[in-house]
């Protein structure tokens, strides 16, 4: 709908335009991670029997760095996921985001649902394990400092990857489906950080609290936070449901960076100090 501004004097109109620009700039600055020029590139390599493809983003500086596997939402390996990988790389990590849809990206919910429904869990896990193996094999990665992060569908697979690989030290879940199998929960050796929305129903706050209690009962390092007023996919400014929450997204990202810094950069290797 077109809106007509009421007639105003030059000074008043200039002041309004300046105020609008300042609000826009402030809102943009509050978005974390900030959009960065893509420093990474498309990656393809045979890893065992798996043809591994995805997006690889590298930090600046020589030497070795911790490695992180970044797992896409149900939309696919889109520009938003690549921006998250680039932001993590800018903080000193070698980041590999596997492409679970073989080059396809969804721009509507129906297509995203079809692509996600077409995944076979065993095949996905094989791809993710191949991604971890690749990071461990790289000369610029500290093999004993590997983490994983995932959003939505990727959050579900992130915690399952941590349960299947005892060498993963840190796992970040953004509103992903929790583990319910006690055996899988016992297998998790990574510290786990979770960022969830109080208005989300997939997973619901009750499911999140139950999962947190199960992790604590199994004596696993866990730090979950449920954000009031936030729903599913609150961290993604492109959320088509309009559920983006800048303040919650900013806080969750700062928690994520501090967590990876503590678990992957500062922790002594190869063992973990309690």
Description:
The chain has 274 residues and is an alpha/beta fold. It has a single domain, classed as Alpha/Beta hydrolase fold, catalytic domain (Rossmann fold). It contains 8 helices and 8 strands. An 8-stranded mixed sheet has the order 1-2-4-3-5-6-7-8, sandwiched between helices. The longest helix is centred in the C-terminal third of the chain and has 21 residues, at 246-266. The radius of gyration is 20 Å and the shape is globular.
Throw out a few tags for this protein.
alpha/beta; eight-stranded mixed β-sheet; 8 strands; 274 residues; disordered N terminus
Number of domains: 1
CATH topology: Rossmann fold
Helix percentage range: 40-55%
**What is the count of helical runs?**
8
Globular, elongated, flat, extended or rod-shaped: what is the shape? Answer: globular
> How much is the radius of gyration in Å?
20 Å
Task: Note the beta-strand portion.
Answer: 15-25%
CATH-defined superfamily: Alpha/Beta hydrolase fold, catalytic domain
Structural class: alpha/beta
Strand order of the largest sheet: 1-2-4-3-5-6-7-8
**Separation of termini?**
58 Å
The major pleated sheet works out as: 8 strands, mixed
Organism: Eiseniibacteriota bacterium
Protein name: Dienelactone hydrolase family protein
GO molecular function: hydrolase activity
Keywords: Hydrolase, Signal
